Amino acid sequence: MADARGLVDRLAAEHALPVEKYEELVRSFSPALAAYAAERAVAARREVYGDEVFVRGLIEVSSHCRNDCRYCGLRRSNRSAERYRLAPEEVLSCCDTGYDLGFRTFVLQGGEDPALTDAVVCDMVSRIKAAHPDCVVTLSLGERSRASYQALRDAGADRYLLRHETADAAHYARLHPPELTLERRLACLRDLREIGYQVGCGFMVGSPGQTSATLAEDLRLVEELRPEMCGIGPFVPHHATPFAEEPAGSVELTCYLLSLLRLIDQRLLLPATTALATLDPRGRERGMLAGANVAMPNLSPMDVREKYELYDNKAHAGSEAAEGLAELRRRMESVGCRVVVGRGDARRR
Ligand code: 5AD
């Protein structure tokens, strides 16, 4: 424990560690060590962001997906999933609603839906930017060609979220069908970065086959890639996937990893994710207490929310929903944070 605390201190000072030290930190996880790391992480976040928490309105534009990821309820072999796709007008109207609520970032997220062609997405992005020039558009639409990422960027998209899911190639292969590779995922992240997006990677905590060694690689990847954002949340089983019987990831370990990520990069945008809020009614608060600084409430139309079922019991009511912003504000205040209206860019070095 004393040794592990020393490693936390070293990480807080140097913002980098050899991979075997990350592994040691992960293996040494205990509630007491996590509390120590959280205290340092919150101090680090305060130095850069004060008490500010950024919110993004999440719009789930399509639940169609051509991929067959073993963990995800939207996988193509899940015949029981009800599929939907929002019309551009619906997406715009979500943004209008969100704007009035105080959102200045909209995240368009969807499965890899072949109907979301460059023309369709570019049109959506440019219409949102025309209607709300003071807003940021973030896309989260999976793997696309470099030319496609460039076209979307040219149409006005500012940020792109593409979780790497795990930085270990063998583990990646266990979670995904053979046609998806870690190599390709990382190439996409590099392309996005080079094109000039603010980039977000991320991973699930407690996914089947994950070990302290694979988590150490995830931490190492964030240290090397230096993304603007990193989204992490516990794995939650979905009944119609091959991982239906697998246990969910741990809220405590997720929070500990949030703290370590905050110490790797004080400026990182770190969401307290919906998966965290799904497993724990105080998940958002606990995320902030561990060093997170972003919340992404759902702005999708009410009638589609339950169809975007990545995992079982996905939260979409209360302060999860954008309409619950007042409740979210109260919850954040209860942990010493303040929701601000604004673009919520990462503070530059
Ligand atoms: N549990 C937790 N997170 C999941 N995601 C997909 N399926 C699950 C699941 N069963 C996450 C993935 C993906 C993001 C949109 O949702 O990390 O990148």
From TrEMBL:
Pfam entry (one): Radical_SAM
Q: Reply yes or no: does the keyword Iron-sulfur apply.
A: yes
Question: How is the cofactor bound, in the record's words?
Answer: Binds 1 [4Fe-4S] cluster. The cluster is coordinated with 3 cysteines and an exchangeable S-adenosyl-L-methionine.
Q: Which Gene Ontology molecular-function terms are recorded?
A: 4 iron, 4 sulfur cluster binding; metal ion binding; transferase activity
Q: In which organism is this protein found?
A: Thermophilibacter provencensis
> Which residues does the UniProt record annotate as the domain Radical SAM core?
51-273
Chain residues that bind S-adenosyl-L-methionine = 165, 185
What lineage is this protein's organism placed in? Bacteria, Bacillati, Actinomycetota, Coriobacteriia, Coriobacteriales
Cofactor(s) the protein needs: [4Fe-4S] cluster
UniProt keyword annotations, A-Z: 4Fe-4S, Iron, Iron-sulfur, Metal-binding, S-adenosyl-L-methionine
What top-level branch of life does the organism fall under? Bacteria
Any idea what this protein is called? [FeFe] hydrogenase H-cluster radical SAM maturase HydE
Q: Where does (3R)-3-methyl-D-ornithine bind?
A: 140
**Residues the record lists as binding [4Fe-4S] cluster:** 65, 69, 72
